[in-house]
Automatic annotation (TrEMBL):
Domain Aminoacyl-transfer RNA synthetases class-II family profile stretches: 63-418
Binding site for L-histidine: D132, L133, T134, R159, Q175, D179, R328, Y332, Y333
A GO CC term assigned to this protein in UniProt: mitochondrion
Coiled coil: none
EC nos: 6.1.1.21
Similarity annotation: Belongs to the class-II aminoacyl-tRNA synthetase family.
Keyword ATP-binding on entry: yes
Keywords for this protein: Aminoacyl-tRNA synthetase, ATP-binding, Ligase, Nucleotide-binding, Protein biosynthesis
InterPro entries (alphabetical): aa-tRNA-synth_II, aa-tRNA-synth_II/BPL/LPL, Anticodon-bd, Anticodon-bd_dom_sf, His-tRNA-ligase, HisRS-like_core, HisRS/HisZ, HisRS_anticodon
Claim: ATP-binding is one of the keywords in the record: yes
Name recorded for this polypeptide: histidine--tRNA ligase
Reaction equations catalysed: tRNA(His) + L-histidine + ATP = L-histidyl-tRNA(His) + AMP + diphosphate + H(+)
Name of the top EC class for this enzyme: ligase
Higher taxonomy: Eukaryota, Metazoa, Chordata, Craniata, Vertebrata
Length: 507
């Protein structure tokens, strides 16, 4: 029996060898005992032609971007300024899912059907990525039966539109929203929202800015007295909203040719959209023979007059312009609307004027929550959104022009040694610093060169270096070095934390 087994193995090996030396097209393996399947697997893997790696360009999807550590530092500073302002005005933080039920997102935004990213149905639900933070907030209020809330939210949103990267427009971008929900006396929350925009834009030092203000009731009233069919109000409003990116001639062409509006009606609208000013323009519109016939428009004008009184008390009326060309294309706005634009972006930095569109916007949306509430309960809301991506673009260009360097870490102290075999001592020191809440680093090498360590500190902008060597160890001391001045002082080992905290408090 053992001889027979040996013969079977020899036969199988011979058969396998004979197949390997044949041309690939002639390969044919006969079954030899129980080894035929193994032989087939071996030959298949050996003879299968090697697949070429597909030829593709490594890139991020169109309309998106990576942010480097340097860019993240700048971005976080902007967000800190924005969020600290929101908190100063008493807002609470909120977060909602990146995607929502598609029906919910399309409830009040038919014009934005084509802008949404739909997700494949994987669990019996049709979902889409959120295109703003306002609709999810309204859903949250209705779902939790909340009648009053002041909230802020920072998160990414997605819109499937043609990106204009050079103007800070992306398909994936971050929004910072502040909203006041609840039944309050007219125009008080609205005035606070405009005050917040002024505080943020002033704090970011972007240059001179102007906030355009209008009211959707005035817009609708204007459409009505100009002869726009009510069925076309929303679509014509969407066209009018493009006036910050297109000339009136192009917008008029879209209204007439693409959306079927009568030319004479478009011309009447054109007479209004060129009007902008302050209180005097408001008074003039009260006397306008056409606009004064609209009850809706008169309500909007009265509220704007009250709003300007409050803005004067806040000391920001000179930053506000009543602008009849402002429309805000989203369907859910019901009252006051506003948009902030930079008049001379980064002019003080000496860079070329940049047209990035609005850097903040918002308005009143009193009916949105009711669309999600089973009983149609209304929760009046007003809010604003800060255009982080556009602001970031301006700040980034300004910093490039000034040649400003950005520290990518917040390390305060570096632990170094000029000698070998001091890894364990460095680990003890850095652990002590971490435990004291001090931001510290060291090189991940057992015996690094002192010059390498000091160069790292200079490159990274680390202000202090703690140095431990044989002499210091014998004397129970440490050297504390200032990276900027290169001065060194000896300190007692037990006073390390206290001395560093003192130095950091003085810097």
């Amino acid at each position: 029996m053992p001889q027979l087994g040996l013969l079977c193995r020899k036969a199988w090996a011979a058969a396998l060898l004979s197949q390997l030396v044949r041309p690939p097209h002639a390969v044919s393996i006969r079954t030899v005992g129980g080894h035929s399947q193994i032989a087939e697997a071996v030959l298949t893997s050996q003879l299968k032609p090697r697949e070429e790696k597909p030829n593709f360009v490594i890139k991020v999807p169109k309309g998106t971007r990576d942010l480097s550590p340097q860019q993240m530092v700048v971005r976080e500073k902007i967000l800190d300024t924005v969020v600290s302002c929101f908190k100063r005005h008493g807002a609470k933080g909120l977060d909602t899912p990146a995607f929502e039920l598609k029906d919910m997102l399309t409830e009040k935004s038919e014009e934005n059907f084509g802008l949404m990213y739909d997700l494949k149905d994987q669990g019996g639900e049709l979902l889409s990525l959120r295109y703003d933070l306002t609709v999810p907030f309204a859903r949250y209020l209705a779902m939790n039966k909340l009648k009053k809330m002041k909230r802020y939210q920072v998160g990414k949103v997605w819109r499937r539109e043609s990106p204009a990267i050079v103007q800070g427009r992306y398909r994936e971008f971050c929004q910072c929203d502040f909203d006041i929900a609840g039944q309050f006396d007219p125009m008080i929350p609205d005035a606070e929202c405009l005050k917040i925009i002024c505080e943020i834009l002033s704090g970011l030092q972007l240059g001179d800015f102007l906030i355009k203000v209008n009211d959707r009731r005035i817009v609708d009233g204007m459409f009505a007295v100009c002869g726009v069919p009510e069925s076309k109000f929303r679509t014509i409003c969407a066209s009018m909203d493009k006036l910050d990116k297109m000339s009136w001639k192009d917008v008029r062409h879209e209204m007439v040719v693409k959306k079927g509006l009568a030319p004479e009606v478009a011309d009447r609208i054109g007479d209004y959209v060129q009007c902008h000013g302050g209180i005097s323009l408001l008074e003039e519109m009260f006397q306008d023979p056409r606009l004064s016939q609209s009850k809706q428009a008169l309500e909007g004008l009265r509220d704007l007059k009250l709003l300007f009184e409050y803005l004067t008390l806040f000391g920001i009326a000179e930053k506000i312009s009543f602008d009849l060309s402002l429309a805000r294309g989203l369907d859910y706005y019901t009252g006051v609307i506003y948009e902030a634009v930079l008049l001379k972006p980064a002019a003080q930095a000496g860079v070329e004027s940049l047209n990035v569109g609005s850097v903040a916007a918002g308005g009143r949306y009193d009916d949105l929550v009711a669309t999600f509430d089973p009983k149609g309960y209304k929760v009046p809301c007003v809010g604003l959104s800060i255009g982080v991506e556009r602001i970031f673009y301006i700040v980034e260009q300004k910093m490039k022009t000034l040649g400003e360097k950005v520290r990518t870490s917040e390390t305060q102290v570096f632990v170094a040694t000029p000698q070998k075999n001091f890894l364990r001592e460095r680990l003890k020191i850095i652990a002590e610093l971490w435990d004291a809440g001090i931001k510290a680093e060291m090189l991940y090498k057992e015996n690094p060169k002192l010059l390498t360590q000091l160069h790292y500190c200079e490159d990274m902008g680390i202000p202090l270096v703690v140095i431990i060597g044989e002499q210091e160890q014998k004397e129970g001391t440490l050297k504390l070095r200032s990276v900027a001045s290169r001065e060194e002082v000896a300190i007692k080992r037990e006073n390390l934390v206290a001395e560093i905290q003192k130095q950091l408090s003085l810097s």
